[in-house]
Amino acid sequence: MDGRRRRVSRSLFRFYNAFALATVLAATGCGGGDVGGVPVAADSQCPGDGCAAVRCPVRHRDDACPLGLVPDACACCPYGVCGLGEAAACNTADRPCADGLECVKTEDVGGGVQYRCACKETDPVCGSDNRTYSNMCQLNEAAAELGHNATQLRIQYRGPCQSAPFIRSAPKNLAGSVGHTVVFDCEVNGYPVPSISWRFTDTYGITKWLPGDDTLIAIQTRGGPDRFTVTSWVQIMEFKPTVHTGNYTCLGSNSADVVTASALLDVRKMV
Ligand SMILES: *[C@@H]1O[C@H](CO)[C@@H](O)[C@H](O)[C@H]1NC(C)=O
Ligand SMILES: *[C@@H]1O[C@H](CO)[C@@H](O)[C@H](O)[C@H]1NC(C)=O
Ligand SMILES: *[C@@H]1O[C@H](CO)[C@@H](O)[C@H](O)[C@H]1NC(C)=O
């Protein structure tokens, strides 16, 4: 499309918008209902066929709009319309999102474009039911589902609920080759994010913290790979069977609890 034609079609588009708006304002209480098979745009226009199809919420009925009322851009309803929840198909005309959500462009699996309500806050929150909600909107929706019991579910604090450490990936038993490198790893999840330490019990039953003073042992810990997860590695740079054979224990701890997972290191048998 060349520049001139684009300009022409843009002004036609503007004209159509102005026309639709005028129609809407002329009707006492504007249109409502479905946009039909037309792809939904975020700024889709108010229907020009009057407000007959719009079911206006009754203001004083609690359960009419579980997520609350939002101002009605099409001026169909005296008290506004029901706000939509997360992932609902939306537009800024007659399908607005509830408070705390915004109508954003998303791509569907088929490559098509859709507008859906998305929570403005993306961080998890801990509810008064000790459950972690992926964001504030999810908590609000859960509270709305409780209906008259909604006041029983509130935010307790921002961030996930405190949870005991959980071993996501435990160290595995290994058979090392003399003089070669051996690595154990351990992944722990929890909130607050746990810290990881390592203990070693040798073949005589003596237990010590790692790395101790062993210059051949290094420990590395880093955050991730997922949220609220930490990963740690014990690296034995030159495996000496008399010193390093034994039981390696990963300890994950936070303010809620301590968890452990163990693995054995032995000499690889020559076949
Ligand atoms: C939530 O957890 C706290 C601390 O563990 C506990 O005191 C409280 O009773 C729990 N509340 C619910 C609703 O389970
Ligand atoms: C509301 O709470 C009461 C008592 O706590 C319970 O009996 C009732 O089933 C709850 N209603 C809903 C919809 O959860
Ligand atoms: C390794 O150590 C842990 C913790 O001390 C213990 O629970 C486990 O039984 C030990 N494993 C073996 C095979 O000795």
UniProtKB/TrEMBL annotation:
Matches recorded under Pfam families: Ig_3, Kazal_2
Kazal-like domain mapped to chain residues: 111-163
The UniProt record lists the keyword Calcium: no
Range of residues in the leader sequence: 1-26
Cellular component GO terms held in the UniProt record: extracellular region
Keyword Coiled coil listed: no
Keywords: Secreted, Signal
InterPro entries reported in the protein's UniProt record: Growth_fac_rcpt_cys_sf, Ig-like_dom, Ig-like_dom_sf, Ig-like_fold, Ig_sub, Ig_sub2, IGFBP_rP_mac25, Kazal_dom
SUPFAM superfamilies attached to this UniProt entry: Growth factor receptor domain (SSF57184), Immunoglobulin (SSF48726), Kazal-type serine protease inhibitors (SSF100895)
Biological process per Gene Ontology, one example term: regulation of cell growth
Gene Ontology molecular function terms on file: insulin-like growth factor binding
Subcellular location: Secreted
Domain Ig-like: 165-266
PANTHER family in UniProt: INSULIN-LIKE GROWTH FACTOR BINDING PROTEIN-RELATED, INSULIN-LIKE GROWTH FACTOR-BINDING PROTEIN 7
Descriptive protein name: Uncharacterized protein
Organism of provenance: Acyrthosiphon pisum (Pea aphid)
